[in-house]
Amino acid sequence: MNWFDRRCRWGEEARRGRSGSAFDSESAAVEFLGGVVLGVLLAVGFELTRRRARVGPATAHRAGAPALPDAVQQRRLLDSVQRLTALADGAITRHCQALKQVNEKLSGSDGSGGDLHEAIAELLEANARLRSALMVALESFRAQQRQLERLIDQARTDALTELANRRAFDLELSRLFAQRQRQGIVFSLLLIDLDRFKQVNDRFGHLVGDRVLRDAATLLRTHLREMDFVARYGGEEFAAILPGTELRQAVLAAERIRECIAAHEFTTDGSRLRLTTCVGVATVRSGEIAETLVQRADVALYAAKAAGRNRTFVHDGHRCVGAVEFLRASHASESETDPRLDAEAG
Questions:
Q1: pTM of the model
Q2: Which of 80, 195, 281, 331 is 20 to 30 A from 210 (CA-CA)?
Q3: Cα(292)–Cα(63) distance, integer angstroms
């Protein structure tokens, strides 16, 4: 007789008020609980399959969203298993409480339910073993989740500078564009390139070049907001996404970065080195896609290099212009709107 037949038989006997043990032995109780475990595992398997289908690359592509990395999918699947395990533990806990209440009532009766009392005691013991096994499994899931978190961080982090890497940058930019479609948010992009960095490697060696890149990354983190997303875009090029930032504020932030790098003394082996940087700035426009925004910032960056380096250039959607000219025009436009600005400037 399988576990399901035993459960049905036990329920039928209980309804008829027949005497005798609900289970013939402790093994029968364990067999019954094995059915419960099987049901939980089937539910877990179904949930994992359903979620894998939901977040698979093909589904994400059809929905117009970027495909999630395998590590992210695994983390979500582990989250699902952990929730299901917690639900199963909660159900077992409530079952145990109900059985204890019945057991207490039987203990206070005239003793006619002795067999049933013994069966419930066996079931409570089996429940305790099952709950213990579930706790071990839950802790294993948590350990795997922590390991996955570390792997995800490593997969999204540049090992040299400890900034986000190019892959993480692409994912963050896609996320912001999706959020913009829903909520109409604004953000700006800075592309930052160290001038003549190849000469640093050629003159001082790659170890010094690596140190310069790490120092530059620290300067970027220091002079940008905590909410800004800073990444190593490739080689000596960095990128910064500034949420909630209009073009004028983004240009001011770019100028702060350019000035702080130009003023910084980079330490080499026995000498000090000064570097400059070029920055290209663009703010997302209506109907724009991620590739276009990056392309505009890149065009502005190369315009800054062509203008003599140590420059910030802006692409306003129509043309490239230097930061000084842009800020002057922006200030003049604001002065026409609010005459008090001219009075303050005077």
A1: 0.62
A2: 281
A3: 21
Q: How far apart are CA 90 and CA 84, in angstroms?
A: 10
Report the distance separating Cα 293 and Cα 226, nearest Å. Answer: 22
pLDDT band per the 50, 70, 90 thresholds, residue 70: low
The residue among 230, 248, 211 whose CA lies nearest residue 333 is: 248
> What length does the chain have?
346
CA 177 vs CA 182, 184, 289: distances in Å:
9, 9, 7
pLDDT in tens, 180-194: 999 999 999 999 999
Catalytic residue, candidates 236, 237, 265, 288: 236
DSSP lists the bridge partners of residue 229 as 241
DSSP 23: S
Whether 236 sits among the annotated catalytic residues: the reply is: yes
Element (H, E) at 44: helix 26-55
* Domains contained in the chain, CATH given: 3-155 (no CATH), 166-345 (3.30.70.270)
- HSE-CB at 141 with a 13 A cutoff on CA atoms is 20
Are the C-beta atoms of 75 and 153 separated by less than 8 Å?
Answer: no
Query: Please, what is the end-to-end C-alpha distance for the chain in angstroms?
Result: 97
